Amino acid sequence: MVTAALPEASVVGVAALTEHASGRFDSAVADLDDGRRVVVRVATDDEGAAELGAQARALRALTSGVRGLLPMRAPVVHGRATLGGMPVLVTDLLKGYRVDAAQVPPGRGAAVSLGAAIAAVHALPESVARTEELPHRTPEHVRSEVSRLLDRVAASHHRVPVALLSRWSRALAADRLWRFEATLTLGGTTADAFLLEDVDGVPTVTGLLVWNGLGVGDPAVDLRWLSSAPDAADDVFDAYLAASARTPDATLRTRARLYAELEFAKWLVHGHDDGRDDVVDDAVALLQSLAETVVDDDLLAEDGFDVDDAIALLGRTPRTPAQETDTSMQTDAFDADDTAFFAEDAPAVTPVHQQDTLPLDLSDPDIADADRASEAALRRWAASE
Question: Is 377 inside any structural domain?
Answer without folding.
Answer: no
